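Private note to self, pasted from the team thread so I don't lose it. Backbone tokens:
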């Protein structure tokens, strides 16, 4: 369409302008708006679905972490008890060593008396 300012605008010129310029511009605007809205909705739905699917997994992970923490605490208590038991056994062994040494000394004294 050529621009001629001396020629009056006709309905045909307006129709051609509308077809060539306005409608494509309006189509582009509408398409961009629709794409933007569609993307927002899709992202929102996707996040919602993802959260829905991940919620049980997150809960299970939390429970597993709690169980691991419980196991760690239990192991610490067992290790503490074992350490205390080892100390008690060592103390008892030392007492028995003293008694055995005392008994051995008494036996030697008795043997010495009998030999005389």
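Design output:
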């Amino acid at each position: 369409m050529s621009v001629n300012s001396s020629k009056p605008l006709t309905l045909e010129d307006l129709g051609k302008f509308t077809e060539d310029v306005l409608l494509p511009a309006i189509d582009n605007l509408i398409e961009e708006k629709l794409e933007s809205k569609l993307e927002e909705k899709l992202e929102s739905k996707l996040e919602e679905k993802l959260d829905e699917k991940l919620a049980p997994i997150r809960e299970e992970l939390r429970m597993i972490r709690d169980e691991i923490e419980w196991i760690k605490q239990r192991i610490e208590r067992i290790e503490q008890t074992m350490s205390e038991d080892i100390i008690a056994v060592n103390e008892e062994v030392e007492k028995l060593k003293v008694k055995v040494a005392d008994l051995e000394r008494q036996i030697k004294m008795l043997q010495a008396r009998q030999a005389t």
